[in-house]
Design goal:
heterodimer; A: 209 residues; alpha/beta; Glycerol-3-phosphate (1)-acyltransferase; seven-stranded mixed beta sheet; 15% strand; globular; B: 306 residues; mainly alpha; 10 helices
Chain lengths: 209, 306
């Protein structure tokens, strides 16, 4: 992916001020955020704004390397939304629902992105779910961890965005938002209960002051 | 206006002096966050003084921004229900309205939040069917509005006060007087507390505040009030000294009021907006009570139309 002046402008003029003033963003352990790929950011998911907030953590010059994984059947249907998601947010679209005739790896595009040294944003819950509650983790992230033991997986806890813009609501209401970045996990893919371990890490971050 | 410029210049001088002292203090003698604290003042002071002397809506905008950030901090730490989002949204919309009423000296300034919105929010919650927990929700939102919007909007009222109040430097001077006094009272209490130490005044709320700090603050602020009143206030020296002491007391009470809310919610600061100071609400807590008191003091003791 290449830098795009429109994306840079939208983030400078709109998304960065939005996260600072509207969301009063507090970041704990900003130094743990990987600025170089390949890396996988793993966060709990409650709001469309989660992706905007995580991307806004990055300096403008690094933005083009950050690739949020998102559901193709949700974001790629409406043509305007599709343009915004692919050109501005440059999402990696994946199919959540598969027919029985599965021919290709559902995470193929994610692995390609990791091979291009990009930073992938991954929501293991797979959906935004109930406001301010963490749902069950899907298995995809465990496959990635096993397949790429050398790629750091950075657990991130997002607090407050389920109040700002929860699932199914159109009205945005300002609340302060907190982002807690955890220590990168490496070589953990062989764990019996990787998903449980990852979940424990994110829950641990949520208790931080 | 000359007096206003002079006082602002003096403030910059004082800040430069404090920066110098913190620069030469040995690390073991210096409170850990002193330098960061002073650095933050280097942002706050120019921003405040530039908008203040603009004599235009820029100051109104600054007040609305301060109020917005404070209300957001308050509403983010109190428990809220998903169904309260619409009420909170309406509360946000009330911020510019309230400040414009104050700015224009509209009589609704006194009733808009305290009566109309008070009833409207509760009725809206009921008609939306958000019954369970409604009283707690409406009461806490209302509390936030009074604390961070209504009380602060008195500053807008003071800023555009009519010339019939014969304040030597007009409304700008009154706002400058109040803000400088409350903020320096904080600094004076902090310094006297550190210098003398001694028994704590209210340890279960503010572990750092001492009796000596409080009394030193009151005395320093009363003296400063006398000095500033010559340029800024339509009062005699005795009235100014008394007002200074009252403002110091209100500053202290506002501080422990906001600290009490923080203790109740189990947090240390409302946010990390201002490095080493905490949130916006942590910075302006001493203004919350002092601003209404100042206006009522003016109304009570000033001879002439208001």
């Amino acid at each position: 992916m290449r830098r795009n002046i429109l994306r840079d402008l939208i983030f400078i003029l709109f998304f960065k001020p939005l996260t600072w003033i509207f969301l009063g963003l507090t970041v704990n352990h900003r130094e743990r955020l990987p600025l170089q790929g390949p890396a996988i950011l793993v966060a709990n998911h409650n709001s469309h704004l989660d992706t905007i907030v995580l991307m806004s953590l990055y300096p403008i010059s690094r933005l083009y390397q950050v690739r949020p994984v998102a559901a193709a059947e949700y974001f790629m249907t409406n043509p305007y939304l599709k343009w915004f998601c692919s050109c501005i947010l440059q999402i990696i679209p994946i199919q959540r629902i598969f027919s029985r005739m599965r021919t290709q790896d559902p995470l193929e595009k994610v692995t390609q992105a990791l091979q291009r040294n990009e930073i992938v944003i991954f929501y293991p819950e797979g959906t935004r779910g109930e406001p301010e509650q963490m749902g069950e983790f899907k298995k995809g992230i465990a496959h990635l961890a096993r397949q790429y033991p050398q790629v750091p997986i950075v657990p991130i806890y997002l607090q407050g965005l389920g109040k700002v813009l929860p699932k199914g609501k159109l009205l945005m209401v300002p609340f302060n938002v907190k982002v807690v970045i955890g220590e990168p996990l490496m070589n953990q893919g062989d764990r019996q209960d990787f998903l449980g371990y990852l979940r424990e890490q994110i829950t641990g971050l949520s208790k931080e002051g | 206006m000359t007096a206003v410029y002079l006082i602002i210049t003096a403030l910059f001088g004082f800040l430069a002096l404090a920066s110098g002292v913190s620069f030469f203090l040995k690390p073991q003698k210096r409170p850990a966050d002193l330098r960061q604290r002073i650095l933050s003042w280097w942002i706050i002071l120019p921003l405040f003084s530039l908008t203040l002397i603009s004599q235009s809506f820029w100051f109104l905008l600054l007040l609305c921004f301060i109020s917005f950030m404070s209300f957001k901090e308050f509403i983010s730490v109190i428990p809220t229900r998903q169904g309260d989002r619409i009420l909170i949204f309406i509360a946000y919309l009330a911020i510019p309205a309230q400040f414009i009423f104050s700015w224009k000296h509209n009589t609704e300034f006194a009733h808009f939040i305290s009566i109309y919105l008070f009833l409207f929010l509760a009725i809206l919650a009921i008609t939306l069917g958000e019954i369970k927990g409604m009283l707690v929700s409406v009461a806490t939102i209302y509390w936030g509005l009074i604390l961070t919007v209504y009380c602060l909007s008195f500053l807008a009222y003071l800023y555009t006060i009519p010339v019939s109040v014969r304040a030597p430097a007009g409304g700008i001077g009154l706002v400058l007087y109040l803000v400088v006094l409350t903020q320096l009272n904080d600094v004076a209490q902090y310094c006297w507390g550190k210098l003398i130490g001694g028994p704590k005044i209210l340890p279960q709320v503010s572990p750092n505040k001492t009796i000596a700090g409080f009394l030193g603050g009151v005395l320093t602020t009363a003296l400063l009030s006398i000095a500033l009143s010559i340029f800024l206030l339509p009062f005699s020296l005795a009235q100014a000294a008394f007002l200074g002491g009252l403002i110091a007391l209100c500053g202290f009470l506002g501080d422990i009021l906001v600290s009490g809310i923080k203790r109740d919610m189990g947090i240390k600061d409302f946010s990390k907006l201002i490095p080493a100071h905490g949130g916006m609400l942590d910075r302006i807590d001493s203004l919350v009570l002092a601003a209404p008191l100042f206006l009522y003091y003016l109304k009570s003791f000033h001879v002439g139309g208001l």
